[in-house]
Specification:
Helix content: 55-70%
Shape: globular
Radius of gyration: 18 Å
Number of strands: 3
Distance between the termini: 15 Å
Strand content: 5-15%
Structural class: alpha+beta
Strand order of the largest sheet: 2-1-3
Length: about 150
């Protein structure tokens, strides 16, 4: 993660208000999906030739239709204004990490040579929870680079 993304995430997390961080995180994830699924949206927001006022109008309309919190909307507009939309995934990951940290959740990446069953992943997660004393969420995937076994990060 970049230092800039961590700073933005910490600033967003520290915003006082009635909005739960998980609700803001949900809005950030929705916006991230929009950027992935609509390349034209990302192109408009990244284009320095399009005035900020036009970009703001697009973001405000989309956010209103989706029911974004005012905190999330202000954050999206800040990122657009500062021309950092290309770092959106990193902002979201940094903010999710702060939310997880506050709840005592640890996230890990689990790579295996073959697809693991959901029950096997759950058992491993539970074992790690007992060892580490925190709730563990594993993102399991198959890695063609492994000949056998597991890799946990």
């Amino acid at each position: 993660m970049s230092v800039v993304c961590d700073r933005y995430a910490r600033a967003l997390y520290s915003v006082p208000g009635d909005t739960a961080p998980d609700e803001v995180l949900g809005n950030l994830e929705v916006f991230g999906r929009w950027l992935e699924e609509a390349p034209a949206l990302k192109a408009v927001l990244e284009n320095p030739g399009i005035p900020y006022s036009a970009k703001r109008a697009v973001v405000e309309k989309l956010a209103a239709e989706a029911g974004f919190t005012s905190v999330a909307l202000r954050f999206v507009l800040l990122v657009v204004k500062n021309r950092r939309i290309n770092q959106w995934k990193e902002f979201t990951v940094s903010f999710r990490n702060l939310c997880d940290l506050s709840k005592g959740v640890l996230r890990g990446k689990l790579a295996s040579a073959d697809k693991m069953t959901d029950s096997a992943v759950k058992k491993l997660s539970e074992r790690l929870q007992r060892i580490l004393g925190s709730h563990v969420v594993l993102d399991a995937r198959v890695s063609g680079a492994l000949l056998g076994g597991l890799q946990l990060q």
